[in-house]
Amino acid sequence: MSDNVARRGFLIGGLGGAALLAAGCTSNEPAAAPSSAAPAASTAPAGGNDQPGDKVVIGFSAPAADHGWIAAIAKNAETTAKQYTDVEFRPVEPTNDINQQISAVESLISAKVNALVILPNDGQQLNQIALQATEAGIPVINLDRVFPDKLAYRTWIGGDNYGMGVAAGHYIGEALKAKNVSNPVIVEIQGIATLPLTQDRSKGFADALKTFGFSVTAKQDAQFTVETGNEVATSLLQAHAKIDALWNHDDDQGVGVLAAIKEANRSEFIMVGGAGSANAMREIQSGTSVLQATVTYSPTMASSAIKLARLIAQGKGMSDLVENQVPQSITLASETITKDNVAQYLELGFES
C-alpha cells in the first residue's frame, strides 16, 4: 500500500479515552478476509454529555474492510453512532482508491454534514479534501492516519506506535531477565519496513530492550498479511536454530507467523504480538502457545472518534476535563495483554 498504509501517523498528544483500550495494530494492507469485526467497545450512553442534545449528522469515511482491524474500525463507528438518538450516521462506501475516497468525502461536504470522521487511505493525499471540509465549516475528526496539515482537522485520535514497541520490549526484557537469560536471540517481524509507523514501533522496541542491555538479533519485514507473516517467520526460524523471544508487529499477519511456528514444531521461545486481535487473545488464553502477550492498538478508537465528533458538533467539551473544548489530539496508550488480564479484553478483540 505504499503510503496507503501509512495509517499509523502519530502526534504528541496525550489523553486516553475512558474505558477504552488502546491497541496494537495492524494496517490496511491486503490480508486474509476477516471473518467478522469486533463488537463496539463503548457502552450505551449513560448520562452527562451522553444525554440527547442537538441533532447532528456525522459523515464517516474509511478504507475498505480487507483487514480485520479496518473491519472493526467500521463496525465500532457504526455501532457507537446508533447508540445516540441525536446522531444521524452517514457513512460513504469504503474504498482503497484515493480518488474514490476524495469523491466520497466531497459528497459529504456537499451534504453539509455537521462533522466528519475520516480515516484516510493516505493522510498526505487526502489532506486537501480535509482542508476543504474545514474551510466549509465542517469539523474533521482525523482518525488514526494523520493529515500532515493541522489546519485540516479539528481533532486527531489514534494509537501510539512507539508505545507499542516499548510495551513489547519491556515485556520481553522482563521475561528474559526473570529467566536469567544473557545474550538472548531476539527476532522481530515488522510490517512494511519503509513506513513511519513500522519504524516508530521498531525504535520503541529497540529503546526498551536497551534498558535491559538487550538488542534485536534479526528483523525482517512482512506486509501485514497472513501469507507474508508465514513466509518471514519460516525464514527466520530456519536461520536461527534457537530463539529466545520474537515480537511480531501485527496480529493479522501473526496468524501466518503462528502457523509457521507450529509447522516447524518450535516452542523454545516466547512471542509477543501486536494489535489485540481476538485470535491472538485466544492463543494467549489457551496457555499452550508460544504467544504469551500482545500489545494493543485498538480499533475502539473509532468509537471514541464518533463520540468526539458528536461533542464537537454540539459545541460540548469532555465532561471529565476542566476545559470547555475537546482536545486537539488524543493518543491512546498501548496496553499489554497477557493471560492475567486477557479476559478483560477478549470482547474487544477484532477477528483476524
Write the layout of secondary structure elements.
Elements: E1 56-61, H1 68-82, E2 87-91, H2 98-110, E3 115-118, H3 127-135, E4 140-143, E5 155-158, H4 161-178, E6 186-190, H5 196-210, E7 218-221, H6 226-239, E8 245-248, H7 251-263, E9 270-275, H8 278-286, E10 291-296, H9 301-313, E11 329-331, E12 336-337, H10 342-345
Parallel strand pairs: 1-2, 1-3, 3-4, 4-5, 5-11, 6-7, 6-8, 8-9, 9-10
Antiparallel strand pairs: 10-12
Helix pairs in contact: 1-9, 2-3, 4-5, 6-7
Structure summary:
Helices cover 35% and strands 15% of the residues. It is an alpha/beta fold and 352 residues long.
Notable characteristics:
disordered N terminus, Rossmann fold, alpha/beta, 15% strand, 2 domains, 352 residues
How would you sum up this structure, described in words?
- The protein folds into two domains: 189 residues, 3-Layer(aba) Sandwich (Rossmann fold), CATH 3.40.50; 136 residues, Response regulator (Rossmann fold), CATH 3.40.50.
- The chain contains ten helices and twelve strands.
- Helix 2 runs parallel beside helix 3.
- The longest helix has 18 residues.
- The chain starts with 55 loop residues before the first strand and ends in a 7-residue tail after the last helix.
